[in-house]
Write a structure and sequence with these properties.
single chain, 393 residues, alpha+beta, Jelly Rolls, Phage tail protein beta-alpha-beta fold, 3 domains, 19-stranded mixed sheet, three-stranded mixed sheet, 8 helices, 26 strands, 33% strand, globular
Length: 393
């Protein structure tokens, strides 16, 4: 049976989303009337609750999992420190527009104890932005973060765009014997959008590269990816679109999907949002998997084994929509994303407890905001030293 702390968290969460039934709202009001400390929780979140669209976005988080994890973590810490505090934890999956927050109440003083100081970080790091380098077929490198561009390849393909996006266009009908390739390189602390000559739109995340023909052939459209990208493929029944990564080949004719294939991660993941895709492993010819919307193909980069399962689609494309979204995610995985987006070095000091995090924060925030979020939701602390982030117990 869920205890009273969980019930309070669930009811306040529903109240902020305007989702409570009349009897549930009556139960919440009854609980608040009996305990002024509980009223403080609701008053706090009524002042900081985000707009409805942000609340809807946070619905993808698992409130039950959040409660279980936070309760276990605080139980362990209270037992170790024997500090005499009465733990009163409210876990809300939709609060303050950022994350699940955990508050501990001092039984004697009746005060909210927040584990963070107001201005703890004296240094800070700005987030990434629209930064990329385009490598042309002749090897020339063009910076795409300096404003408007207008270029042409030797086959007549025109390249144009402003900061944040480059567009390819080729209306020539002549058959070109030589296939010309360009490569879009997005560094650490970068992101960029490209529209290929067939009308396909691709968003690239930090530390990603896309190699592609400047003009596709009549029978096949093939690109190569390292890192992460979100594809909205232009439909062409006569010319399948293929994405090659280090251990996956994704084939579609027109669909929306996300591919995450960083060399320093344990898995490559293809997540389908719309349409259908066929995923295969070049190391295992003859075997493939057909994905339906909402499914994900996950390939172990060491063993080559592929598993198909349901995906959290909001989590998969949160980066493309301008968010970090952590849903039961390990600290090491989170910090790998932090290192890529903020272009920082992450080092670990001391022995950290194994822990997972749930929460959301905009990628437009400075790094201190994200680190405060993680400190508030788990047993971890950080120090910023230039472009080095020290992770500590």
């Amino acid at each position: 049976m869920k205890n009273e702390q969980y019930e309070l968290a669930r009811l306040i969460s529903g109240y902020l989303r305007n989702e409570l039934q009349p009897e549930e709202e009556a139960r919440l009001m009854q609980m608040l009337e009996k305990d002024a400390r509980k009223r403080k929780i609701l008053d706090y979140y009524k002042q900081t609750a985000p707009a409805q669209e942000r609340l809807n976005y946070m619905n993808s988080l698992n409130v039950d999992a959040a409660w279980d994890k936070v309760q276990r973590g605080y139980d362990n810490r209270v037992a170790k420190k024997n500090n005499g505090f009465l733990k009163y934890v409210a876990v809300l999956a939709v609060i303050a527009g950022t994350a699940i927050l955990c508050f501990v109440f001092n039984q004697k003083a009746g005060k909210v104890i927040a584990p963070l100081a107001a201005n703890k970080y004296q240094q800070d790091v700005a987030p990434g932005g629209d930064v990329a380098v385009l490598v042309l077929s002749n090897g020339k490198k063009v910076s795409l973060d300096s404003g408007q561009i207008a270029l042409a390849e030797k086959d007549g393909t025109r390249l144009s765009g402003n900061q944040g996006e480059v567009v390819y266009a080729n209306n020539e009908t002549n058959i070109e014997t030589e296939v010309l390739y360009n490569t879009l390189v997005v560094p650490r602390a970068g992101t960029y959008k490209i529209q290929l000559a067939d009308g396909t739109n691709v968003w690239l995340n930090a530390m990603s590269e896309l190699r592609f023909p400047v003009k596709f052939g009549a029978k096949e459209r093939k690109v190569e990816l390292s890192g992460e990208a979100y594809f909205e493929v232009a439909k062409n029944e006569n010319a399948p679109f293929k994405v090659l990564t280090s251990n996956q080949e994704i084939e579609v004719k027109g669909t929306h999907f996300n591919v995450n294939s960083y060399a320093d991660e344990n898995f490559s993941r293809t997540t389908l949002l719309e349409g259908s895709v066929k995923v295969s492993n070049p190391a295992a010819p003859g075997k493939s998997w057909l994905l339906n919307p909402g499914e994900q193909a996950e390939t172990n980069q060491k063993s080559g084994q592929t598993a198909i399962g349901r995906a959290n689609m909001k989590e998969a494309i949160a980066w493309k929509n301008g968010y970090f979204l952590f849903n039961d995610e390990k600290l090491e995985s989170i910090m790998a994303k932090v290192a890529r987006w903020y272009d920082v070095e992450v080092v670990y000091e001391g022995k950290l407890e194994e822990q997972s995090f749930l929460g959301q924060i905009e990628r437009s925030k400075k790094i201190s905001a994200l680190l405060k979020l993680l400190e508030l939701s788990g047993n971890v602390h950080f120090k910023i030293s230039g472009r080095r982030i020290v992770v500590m117990p």
